[in-house]
Fold this sequence. Notes:
By secondary structure, the chain is mainly alpha-helical. Helix content is 73%, strand content 0%.
Amino acid sequence: MSVLRNPLFLSACLVFWLNQFLEKILGIYIPIAHAYLDDLLAMPVVLGITLQVYRWIHPLRENFTFSKAQVVVGWVYFSFLFEFLLPRWSTTYTADLWDVFCYGIGAIIFYKLINIKS
């Protein structure tokens, strides 16, 4: 199945967009969603888009999937960048271990439910 047709991927993208619309356009902030929803959806959305691009260019096409190690590297990369490096460089970012946990849950959701062969 194409990632772009995966209902979970599409739902994650839609919920992410809706949350951003509520916050940035309407100025509506739901506290728990504002704090953790984007972090929870980051891995399914980012890894989903990346997987789809790989499937367009890789010889295995729709049978290409990311290994556990590749998904873990994505999770570690996001955690390190957004929860360690960026908070040290800018006051815009705040380090939060719960965000790392949310990235991890999102990575598991991606690996189990989106990262599947046709």
